[in-house]
Fold this sequence. Notes:
Blueprint: E1 7-10, E2 17-20, E3 23-29, H1 32-38, E4 43-48, E5 52-55, E6 59-61, E7 68-71, E8 78-83, E9 86-90, E10 104-106, H2 129-136
Parallel strand pairs: 3-10
Antiparallel strand pairs: 1-2, 2-5, 3-4, 4-9, 6-7, 7-8, 8-9
Amino acid sequence: MPQGEAHTGGCQCGAVRFRVTRLGRPSICHCRMCQKAFGGFFGPLVTAHNATWTRGEPKWFQSSNAARRAFCGDCGTPLAYETRFGLELAIGAFDDPTVAAPQIQVNLADRQPFFHGLTSLPERHDVSDEWRDFMAGIHSNQHPDHDTNDWPPREDT
């Protein structure tokens, strides 16, 4: 992980953005609280030693007596996890998630029993014309993967 280089990210709608230049160890956490907070099978997190919120502020949920979790109050995107040991940012919320490829798994007691088999599931490469047309017609309202001065974009009148 390049240190000193600015890494940015934020939520889906662009209401909350962050910047960090010093990252720690990226991990995936299998605890049940992370599963629920991310709505997935694990929580991908990286320690952020000097993160700043550059647009908006997240809302916080005290998920336990020892931790709180940040999310966008507008779109619900999970953004961070904080304990007395510091702040961790959601890897998927980075504009370039590859800057924090997970290096370790933690809280294995709660790991879902089917987790190891996920990468061996069949892959579907053939798609119907109907599905291809559906996908081609999608216009994303998500914030782009880079900082913007204004969001949403102003419409010319």
